[in-house]
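Sanity check record (used in CI):
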Amino acid sequence: MTKDIKAQPAPEHLVSKFKLQTSKEVDFFLPVNKGSNAKVGHAKELTAETPKLFQPLEITPGFTLSNRIGVSPMCTYSAPSSGSEIGNPTQFHQTHYGSFALRGSGLIIVESTAVAPNGRLSPEDVGIWNDEQAKAWRSVVQFAHSQGVKIGIQLGHGGRKASGIPPADHLQFGIDSSLGGWSDVKGAVVAPSALPFNPDPEVNLQGYVTPTALTTDQVEETVELFGAAAKRAYEIAGFDFVEIHGAHGYLINEFLSASSNKRTDQYGGSFENRIRFLLEIVDAVKSETHPTFLRISADELTPSDPDAWTIEDSVKLAHVLVERGGVHVIDVSSGANNPHAERRPSHQGFQVPYAKALKAAVGDKIQIAAVGGFVDGEFANKVVENGEADIVLVGKTLLKNPGLPWVWADQLGVKINVGRPLEWPYYHPAWKF
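Expected output for NADH:flavin oxidoreductase/NADH oxidase N-terminal domain-containing protein:
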């Protein structure tokens, strides 16, 4: 006969050790890591020898990243373009951004999100110009928070490059109301001046229309739109920070550059006037409890145009931002405001020299984020170890592999926290007690 075996209560020390801890941020069962350093992306054992890429970074008091790797803002063109849910993020966005939150990124910057309907880069862009859109972002934010990951939203306005085709040939083709766009609606496509993105009819086949120049009152109203969007992002959606999109030839970039800004009021002419729109937006969105990021195109890459924005202008702007305060991270990209810009080979780190120049200008007064084709962990680590930038933002490579920070950690000999449901096959518990 076999002897009956009765279940015995587990020893108390095992119950406390192995009882699952679940997230309070989401409304479904989700096991999460335990402990004060349990955030996804945080090194499991942090020492003086830990590569700098995987050392925490304090942006402001109480706002610390678990590592220096971030998800660069990348449009997905996946929101409803009409109806009551126009511009709303969907389940796709929760799945998309959730894949990064589980796998080691220290921060996530959500794609360019329009502050007004006519500010969308395409009809399928996400928005945050109303409260319902902000509410729809909550689930995305809550999931990131369940993993301890900081998540922010990029606020943008397309200016003269709004109402474009998503995403192929995006810099060449504008679309009208027959395809859900608004390029044929009088006064809907706006800019600092009535200058089309590309006036060359042989290149700009059916492309961007001549925009309507904003009146001075409309400029001030647009500043208020950014402020209202930031308030929704914080108070309704729960984002940790906002990033102002001042790059890539969109509205703010158009004001900065004398090649696209021919105004004669207080928002045009001198350098000080051309940066006024941006500075007023910084004042409108800044928060005492949340850091503000700013993406800029550090150089217009058009040396043939004496009015083009240059790296020297960006350094000058950075000094102004240091003096005024309100910006905590500058995200350094380049180009896209001039159709005749020089084309450069996009090798790994090709944008880093611009980040390095700005880092040299601001020192430790503002954190600098570098972008540009990062694929290798050792290369990315050298960028931060050498003081060329404080943060590395990754785009396309993360789209292909959301677990890239985890791969880089392996390359650099670091064990990091990832989502609890995913990590156990790699960091197996010891079978002894």
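Residues 51-423 form a domain with the TIM Barrel fold (CATH 3.20.20.70). If this sentence no longer matches the regenerated tokens, the check is flagged for review.
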